[in-house]
Design goal:
Strand content: under 5%
Number of domains: 2
Radius of gyration: 24 Å
Structural class: mainly alpha
Number of strands: 4
């Protein structure tokens, strides 16, 4: 007979999936109406020849992602509710291995199972969806290499974190949540240093911006922004995809700005400068540290919850677990995951504020909004991003404001010269576009 806590877990995880599926459907319908009503702006400002292509891409990605999520949830609940998870935990507890090793093996098995489950979806996304819309540049050999290297990295880092936390459990039976929280925060900080220097180069080549027009443009924007010119790299993203992006990572001497080679190819120099200024703002405005602090608070709540779960006898009885903390931690994380999903609107607000602040910094650095708005339009058009997400969907999923909102706000705050290369006139939003009802 299935226990009440197990039924509650099914209802909780299943309910969150139903919510996510409803948000997906709402977002697709809302975006489709808005794009069609603003089709001329999409063609002119975003340089998308056929807006229906943008909609089709979004549908394909959304449906595939949600199908994968449902399959993962069904498989996960099947393993836990059926008692298989408890049987595996009991088998590990009888191996004679130290408890830390047992927990690491359990996590490694979960990582490998997740990877195997994702293989057909990742392959379909890369070689069917991305290929159909002209984004994929990967060969099968490169895709397989990424799969293997990514799995090894996940196992290595997951094993390190699990071993450290479980060692804290063994050494500090009453204080391990505090020690575990401190270890996870310290690990997160160390990853910010290790990732750009060790992990990212396993997948891509990073070349410092060389002398020439681009280097001069980079030095110019650094001078305007009040930075010393260092750690600016071009990444060979085009080996895998024609999608474009840029990001800031690290701190101290390990901090660096990375520009995709596809972005450099797609944008004019001033637009690239605006993107660079936007990324520099995340360091200048201390966004990195604010995000770290917010994440630390979030992790403190998670560890407090895990402490309650692992010290509650019901979890061991309800799920047929051995008296091993690592077994209860696995169940606790299943409950914690949906809670983080439901709290996303709160955590996303901080990121949204940071992105707006970074947009402002870019506009101020560039002496106006034109360069940044051109960059935003290029990013949206070249990546076929949905410019009009439903507000409810955006609240749960978007860490950046919608592109039209960002453009409109920049133009209102900093003005725009002339027609801005075809963008002239009011920038439409989903709830402003003709025929689209107000957001609910």
């Amino acid at each position: 007979m299935v226990s009440l806590p197990a039924l509650a877990l099914v209802g909780f995880l299943g309910g969150v999936q139903v919510l996510e599926t409803a948000l997906d459907a709402l977002n697709l319908r809302y975006g489709a109406r808005a794009v069609r009503d603003a089709a001329e702006w999409v063609r002119t400002a975003l340089d998308v020849d056929d807006p229906e292509t943008m909609l089709s891409y979004q549908r394909s990605k959304t449906v595939l992602s949600r199908l994968q999520s449902w399959l993962a949830i069904v498989a996960l609940l099947g393993v836990v509710v059926s008692g298989v998870y408890g049987d595996i935990a009991f088998a590990l507890s009888e191996t004679g291995l130290p408890s830390v090793a047992q927990g690491v093996l359990l996590l490694a098995g979960a990582i490998l199972a997740g990877r195997v489950l994702s293989i057909p979806f990742d392959a379909y996304e890369t070689f069917v969806v991305e290929e159909r819309f002209g984004f994929n540049n990967q060969t099968l050999a490169l895709w397989l290499r990424d799969l293997l290297v990514g799995t090894v990295v996940a196992l290595a880092f997951g094993g390190i974190v699990a071993a450290a936390v479980l060692a804290a459990v063994a050494a500090l039976p009453t204080l391990w949540p505090v020690a575990g929280w401190a270890l996870v925060v310290a690990f997160s900080l160390s990853v910010m240093i290790v990732y750009p220097r060790v992990i990212a180069p396993l997948f891509n080549d990073f070349e410092p911006i060389a002398d020439g027009d681009l280097r001069e443009a980079v030095e110019d924007v650094f001078e305007r922004a009040g930075f010393a010119c260092e750690q600016i790299y071009e990444m060979d993203a085009s080996r895998r995809s024609s999608h474009s992006n840029a990001y800031f990572v690290g701190f101290g001497r390990a901090k660096r700005v990375v520009l995709f080679d596809t972005l450099i190819e797609q944008m004019d120099r001033e637009a690239i400068q605006a993107v660079l200024a936007h990324e520099l703002a995340h360091w200048k405005k201390a966004h990195i540290w604010k995000q770290v602090a917010a994440s630390a608070v979030q992790m403190a709540v998670v560890f407090a919850f895990l402490w309650w779960v692992t010290t509650s006898q019901w979890v061991y009885t309800a799920f047929g677990l051995p008296a091993e903390t690592y077994a209860a931690l696995g169940i606790g994380l299943l409950y914690a995951g949906p809670v983080l999903t439901l709290s996303a609107p709160l955590t996303n607000k901080l990121s949204l504020a940071h992105e707006r602040e970074a947009d402002d910094f870019a506009a101020e650095t560039m002496g106006g909004a034109d360069a940044m708005t051109r960059a935003l339009r290029t990013l949206a058009g070249e990546n076929l991003s949905n410019p009009f997400p439903h507000p409810a969907y955006a609240a749960f999923h978007l860490t950046h404001p919608p592109i039209p909102e960002r453009i409109r706000r920049l133009r209102e705050e900093y003005g725009a010269h002339g027609s801005d290369d075809g963008e002239g006139g009011d920038v439409p939003a989903g709830d402003d576009a003709p025929g689209v009802p107000p957001a609910t």
